[in-house]
Amino acid sequence: MKWSPRVQTPLVWGGHLLAATAFAWPLFAPAVPTEAQGAVPFVALALAPLAAVTLVFVLDGSVRSAKVLALLGTLTAVGAAVRVVGTGVGGIEAVFVLLILAGRAYGARFGFLLGVFVILLSSTLQGGFGPWTPFQMFACGWVGAGAGLLPRLRGPRAKLAEIAMLAGYGVLASYAFGLVMNFWYWPFAVGTGAGISYEPGATLGENLGSFLLYSLITSTASWDTLRAITTVIGLAVAGPAVLAALRRAKLPRDALR
C-alpha cells in the first residue's frame, strides 16, 4: 500500500512518539492520578507493540522495489544469525556493526526496518519473545536509523573520517541502547527502599539520579562498555570493506520513500 506524505509523516512521527512514551513511562507515572498509577506500566507495555506494528506497516508499505525487499531480507537473515550466535556473551551486540553500516549505506528508513526485523527474526529463532521484544525492536531500529542521519563527508580522507565518525556513533549508540533498555524495566528490576529504586512519589530529579546510578551499576560500566568496544573494533576492522560492498548494491532513488 502506498502512503501519501501527508498521511505517512504523522504516522511515522506518531509511532516514534508512542514508543518513546512507552520507554519513558516512569517519568509520566507521577503525573497520573494516584488511583490510576498502577495501570501506567501496562499501558506502556501495550503502547510499544502497537507503535512497532504501526511503523512497520507504514514503512514497509513505502518500500517500492523488489531489490530493496530482497536486500532487506538478506541482511535481516545475516543480522539474526549474528545476533543468535552472539547474544548473551557479556553484552556483546555484534549486530550493531551491521545495523550501523547498513543504515549509513541505505539511509535511516532502511536502517530502522532492518533493526526491527533483525530483532523479530532472531527472537523467533530463539523462542525469546517477551515484553522486552518490542522495546528491543525500537532500540535497534533507532541504532540503524541514527547512522542514516549522520552527515555526509567529503574530502581526500573522507573514507577514513567516515569510519571514525561511525565508530564514535557506535560508542554513543551502545551506551544509549543500554540506557533506554534499562529505563522501561528499571521500576520492575529493583525493589523499593534502595538507593537505586524507582519511587513513584519522588521528584523527577531524584528518580533520574536513582536511574542513572542503577544503570551505571548494572550495565553502563560493564555490558554497555563491552558493547561499545566490540562495536568500535568491528567497525574499524570490517567497516571499510562491508560499507563498500553495501554501496555497490545501489538502490533506486525512489526505492524507499
TrEMBL record:
Is Glycoprotein set as a keyword in this record?
A: no
Which Gene3D superfamilies does this entry report, sorted A to Z?
A: 1.10.1760.20
Q: Which UniProt keywords apply?
A: Membrane, Transmembrane, Transmembrane helix
Membrane-spanning segments: 12-32, 39-59, 79-103, 110-129, 135-151, 163-185, 226-246
Instruction: Supply the name of the protein.
Output: ABC transporter permease
Q: Could you tell me which species this protein originates from?
A: Agromyces mediolanus
Q: What is the lineage of its organism?
A: Bacteria, Bacillati, Actinomycetota, Actinomycetes, Micrococcales
